[in-house]
Write a structure and sequence with these properties.
Number of domains: 2
Structural class: alpha/beta
CATH topology of the largest domain: Rossmann fold
Helix content: 40-55%
Bound molecules: zinc ion
CATH superfamily of the largest domain: P-loop containing nucleotide triphosphate hydrolases
Radius of gyration: 32 Å
Length: 586
Amino acid sequence: MPSVYLLHFYIFFCLVLITFLISQCVYSHAPRQEESMFSSVTTGAVFGIESYCMQVETDISDGLPSFTMVGYLSHEIRESGERVKTAIRNAGISIPASRIVVNFSPADIPKQGVVVDLPVAAGILCSLGVLNNEDVKGVLIAGELGLDGVIKPVRGVLPIVRTARENGIHTCVLPVENVAEGAVFDDMKIVGVDTIRKMIRYLLEPIETRDRIIAPTRVDIQALFTEQRANDGLDFADVHGQHAAKRALEISAAGFHNVLMTGPPGSGKSMLARRMPGILPPLTMKESMEVSMIYSIAGRIPQGTSLITKRPFIAPHHTITRSALTGGGTIPTPGVITLADHGIVFMDEFPEFGRENIDLLRQPLEDHEIQISRLTGVFTYPARFLLLAAMNPCPCGYFPDVNKCNCTEPDIKRYLGKISGPILDRIDMCVSTPQVEINELMDGSKEESSAVIASRVMESRQRQEFRFRGMGFLFNADMDSRAVEKFCKLGSSEEKLLKSVFKKLEMSARTYHRVLKTARTIADLGGSENIRDDDIMEAVGYRMSDYMSRSQTEFDHRGTERTAREHTKSVRDISNHTGKEVRKYE
Ligand SMILES: [Zn+2]
């Protein structure tokens, strides 16, 4: 028996010895890592709405064939390994069976939703010696690969190109479909490629003669602005009647004030809202760049387009989820309110969005940005949008017409309760859109066109631009309390008037400031340097929202009808006021 144990021990010992000898042999004969086996390629990536430059380091060495990618990667990046290897092979370049390691640096930023096929391919080609490290130096490469070696478009090209520029890189090799998006900077050389072969040909060429292989793309930004501003066919001239609402929208467009329209179904609320972009002042270059960055990251810039030059108009359906509204995901993608930055969010059937969703708008309406907290960090996205809301006065839509409305008291209470006081407080103007009379519809007289309204808006916009130069504001609605104090100075009679209105309508401090800001815009539209009595009265007239918030607390079916009528009357009384004294509220 002991001899059997001895034999086993002997065999085991021999095996260990052989393994040791082989490993020694492999290591001593393995070629030392050559410099050409390592390469580094620059690419760009997006994290939230920020972009950064990323290095793709590739090392090919002898050893068991493997393909490893490291650097805080999501599964979509891990998948790209197979795609890249197949694409390179199908482009006619063989990859020897070796150990390939790809590292993405900086390693501490989670990489998600990023496509890095093309830079990884370029890295492998450099390590294989097909390209030289010198060829890819100072070049940013981005793109997705098909298995056949064809290059497909990616998201976020505009911010990536901007980051490259900030980092002193002035050549970008991008998918052909993305070149227009990247070519907005004059000092950047944007080169579009459609296959791996084409990229290799371009990069192998000496730098001085590269333009002969593929000419860099150039875009005339000025022409783009004039081209895209062409009318979309929606004109205020098509809407008959509703003069009060039109006037309110004009004021809103001029000063960027939030508006709530209340009226029965079919009175034209949506029709009016959809014509709003036509009268807004055009985007400035700076605004356009900010909007385009967000659209680029969301992959929403139409192919062949460089910049978004029209103010965004987004009308979400009321079934929208919380994350679609504000931004969702582990690394949040921009939500509706961020996509509508510098533009309009139109929320039709406002109470139907649900109290929770509506209340989410409180912070963005105040701070013009949204903060989203995730495990990966706190993300702050811009949300400087104009809220245009529309609602029926009750669930059936016909209140206070008691003949038509058959809603019960609790129904209406619940319906109005979906909009909280703080939200109403943030809406500068509330205007009713009653049913249009038949004679107004059949009246052949021409309504004012969007172009005429837009010219008035533009004039008042220029006044504001002059007023706020160097202050960081663009519109009257943006003024902080200090600016309100400075630019909304009142004469003694106006001051007296506002004081009495403040008392009668039991205004909050926030409402007081909002009334002043709206009055400032009305004065601007009238070409007046000072805020006058009439401007204040008109601005107060748009605070119908106060009636709504009050009706939530002191509700009574008949009573509310009375309150509504009384309120309208009192506002009318105040608006009609010609003397220096305000008539009694009750
Ligand atoms: Zn009703």
